[in-house]
Each structure stands twice: as structure tokens, then as C-alpha cells.
Predict the structure.
Amino acid sequence: MDPLLVVAGAATGLLVGLTGVGGGALMTPLLLLVFGVAPLAAVGTDLWFAAITKTFATRVHHGHGLIDWSVVRRLWLGSLTASALTVGFMKLYPVDQNAVGLLKGAIAVAVVITALGMLLQKPLHALGRKFRTGNSARFKVLQGPLTILAGAILGLLVTLTSVGAGALGAVFLSYLYPLRLTPPRLIATDIAHAIPLAVFAGAGHLLIGNVDFGLLGNLLAGSVPAVIVGAMLSSRLPHALLRMLLAVVLMAIGVKLW
């Protein structure tokens, strides 16, 4: 057991439970910058870390009736398809050592985009609310296809970098479902969508040999109890402030990683 890894897993798990963000956007950069894990191993291991950690959070949220399963199914239609296609491409064209630097840069870009998305979530929510109330019929026609497209974008990004399922997923949902999803329901729905996506992508990385099980065990030892606590507290804490602070931290991490 490595105490530092356990603490890192606990801190990330708590944030995942509270905000739905951090499984990839925070843990992958931590593995790269603090623990010196190779990029491919960081991505592959983090996907399984996120999937298992979020499973425990989802059990708590589901018990409270917060998950909107119809929205989750629309996201899965796009994200799981895109993830399967991306894994197939990676199997045919493996990432060799010459492309490791490019992969690290892609992770940095994904983290920065995630941070920007979180900072812009409130304006995007207001824009979606205005569209929803001002042109309701057209909005409802586009809502389904745009949700599937958002899922496809998430599937591609998460499979390549392990980043984006929580933060960007929440941004997309806040725009596409401004009236339907309250903050606790948005977090629960976002987490529920992210689990099969992480498993899909993680299975591909497992086949390629990018999962470090010793590292994964240490991270989960901290994250599993912490994510349950975070999920139980999520409906009682100021989500907007927490996500704003996390966005600023992620922006700094992304710039440092770049």
C-alpha cells in the first residue's frame, strides 16, 4: 500500500461524489505530474478507477431517485458507439513511444477544455434555458440528436484521454436539459452515464496492456469510501462554488501539464 496514492484516491473520490467531476480530469494529471506514471498507463488505469469509483456513487444517487435514465440512454447511444470505434482504431494503430508526447499533450488540452467548459457552464445553462422557453418546439426536436452527438464527443475524448466524462458531460446536460435536470439530478445522471463509457474504454486499454492493477488497488482503497461520503453530501453543498473552484484548479493543472 502506498499512503500517498490512497490519499490521492480519497481526495478524488470525494470530489467525484460531490460534483461528478474528477475521475479523469483530476486523477490522470495527478498520476502524470505527481506520481510519474507513463501516459498510457495513467489513461488505462484511470478509466477503471473512474468506473469503479462512480459505481459506488451511483448506488447512492439511484437510491434517492435522482438518475434520469432516458437521458442516460441517449448519451450511451452516442458515447458507447464512439468509444467502441475509437478502441478499434487504437487496436489497429497502436500508440507507440513516438506518440507518447502527443498523447500527453492531448490530455493537457482535454483538461483545459474541461476547465473552460466548467467555467462557462452557467452562461451555457442560461442560453439553453432561453432557447428552451423561447422556441420550445424546435428545442425539443433537436434535443435528442444533440444529446447523442454530445455522447459521441464524450466517447471519443474519454477513450483517448480518460478526461471529460464528468465535467464536459455536465456542461452538455446543463445546456440540453436546463429545466429538466436540477443540480443533484444532473450530477447523478452524468455519473450514471460515465460508468459504462469508462468500462468500454477501459476494456480496450486492458486488452492493449495499459492497466496497472497495483496502482488501481491503491487508488480504490481511498476512493471507494470517500465517494460514498461525497455522494451523500452532494445535495447539501453549494455545487456552483465547488465546481468553480475545481475549474480554476484544473485550468492550472492543464497549463502545467502542457
Observations:
- The mean pLDDT is 85.
